[in-house]
Amino acid sequence: MSNPLFNLSGKVAIVTGSARGLGAAMVQGLATQGAQVIVCDRNLELAQHTAANIQASGATAAATFVDITVQQSCQDLMQFAVAQFGKVDILVNNAGIDIIKPALDLAETEWDAILDVDLKGQFLCAQAAAQQMIRQKTPGSIINISSIASTVGIRNLVAYSAAKGGINQLTRVLALEWAEHQIRVNAIAPGYFENIMQGASEEHDNLEKQKQILTFTPLKRRGKPEELVGAVVFLASDASSYVTGAILPVDGGYTAV
C-alpha cells in the first residue's frame, strides 16, 4: 500500500519547462502520484505531446505555452491552471537555459538571457503562483530547481552559476515571506543527470567532461531522470509539511566531496 503522505490526489501541479527532459520526468512523476498536472513550455507542440502521454497512462494533464521571462505569461499560466482544474497547489520552477562558455568570452546578451530565464523567470512564476495560492486561501508548495553550480565552482558556467546561486537565496527569502500564508518554498539542486538541457550536449559528450563527472561524483555515474522524481514528490507532498527554505542536493554526493 502506498504511503498517504506522498499521495497528491486532488492537488494541481504546474511544472515549467516540462515538455522534455528532466521537466517531463518530474511532471510525469507528480501525475503518477495522483496530481492533476499542467505541462507548460515555450514549445507548445512538444508540451501537448507530453501531456497526451500522461493522459494515455490514465492520469490527468493539460498543456499550455509559457514564457517565464514575461510576467503576464506567468499570470496567464496560473489562470489556465485555474480554468482547467480550479486551483494551483504546487509549482515546480524547472525551466532553464545554459550557455557554456569561458567568462572572458561571454557576451552581455548571453549573460542577460541566462539571468532572465534562470533567475528572473523563476521569481516571476513563483510570485504569480503565490498570488494565486493566497487568493485561494490554501497552503501551497513551490519547488525551485537550482543546481550544484550554485555552491561549487564549475568552469565555463559563470552566468548559470550566478543565477542558480541567486535561486538558493530567492528560495530562502520567499520561504520566510510566504510562511504566514502556509506556502512552503524549497529548492532542489541536481547534479549531473543523463538527460541534460538543450545546448549542453556537445560539452557533455566530451571525454574530459565525462571523466570530471565520474571523478567528482562519489556514486560514479550520472543520475537517471526518474531519480529526481522522489525529491520533487517529497517536497510537493505532506511528507515535507514542516520543510521550507531548504536546498536539497540530488547529486550522487558531488557536493559532499
Any descriptors?
8 helices, 15% strand, Rossmann fold, alpha/beta, 257 residues, 7 strands
Brief characterization of the structure:
This protein has helices spanning 21-32, 44-56, 71-85, 108-136, 158-178, 201-205, 207-216, 229-236, and strands at residues 12-16, 36-41, 61-65, 90-93, 140-145, 183-190, 247-250. With 257 residues, the chain is α/β, with parallel strands linked by helices. The N and C termini lie far apart (37 Å).
Question: Can you characterise this structure?
Answer:
The chain has 257 residues and is α/β, with parallel strands linked by helices. It has eight helices and seven strands; from the N terminus they run E-H-E-H-E-H-E-H-E-H-E-H-H-H-E. The protein has one domain (4-198, 225-248): Rossmann fold, CATH 3.40.50.720. Strands 3-2-1-4-5-6-7 form a seven-stranded parallel beta sheet, sandwiched between helices. The protein is globular, with a radius of gyration of 17 Å.
Break the fold down into its secondary structure elements and pairings.
Layout (H helix, E strand, L loop, with lengths): L11 E5 L4 H12 L3 E6 L2 H13 L4 E5 L5 H15 L4 E4 L14 H29 L3 E6 L12 H21 L4 E8 L10 H5 L1 H10 L12 H8 L10 E4 L7
Helix pairs in contact: 1-8, 3-4, 4-5
The overall number of domains is 1
Quickly give the structural class: alpha/beta
N-C termini distance:
37 Å
CATH topology name: Rossmann fold
**What is the CATH domain class?**
Alpha Beta
